[in-house]
Amino acid sequence: MTELEEGTRQALENQPHANEVFAHPLPFNVIPHIDAFQSNGYTKEEMKVVWETQKIFGEKDLSCSCTAVRIPTKRAHSEAITIETEEEVTPEAATELLKAAPGVQVVDNPAEKQRLAPQSSPQSRSSQEALGWLKVQSVSVREAGHVDTEVHSSQQLLQDVEAVSSGW
Q1: Where in this chain does the record put each Semialdehyde dehydrogenase dimerisation domain (predicted)?
Q2: Can you give the residue range of the structural domain that contains 86?
């Protein structure tokens, strides 16, 4: 935190600042990778997310992928999560389900012009996970990366719901 605070002050005062703890300067930056790269091309931090997800769901073979970047803030983590379901789920139904989940706070108002979203600053003072911006993906996870332009029936596609999460 000291490197972030001092580096931010120096950057705002247009002074040079050296980073000692991290490989990249923290102020006003996005850190492209966290920890060492693993043999599968993912970073250790990305694999920790995969392993933790599998542990939470009690499914060692749960298919999960993660891209992790660090955005220097004083406290909190943020994630974009894609949930693939076997049956169609609307964002409204997913929102109601998540509102009932313990430890979850839904921060979303899709009908408003200035749409709310989870933010790290307010969440750093909360023990709840904030979720927002639930939406149906425009591309199926199973279709992503495919060049095939064939039209698929709704039974062949799985519904994807994406949520933005912020918590600590």
Answers
A1: 1-120
A2: 73-168
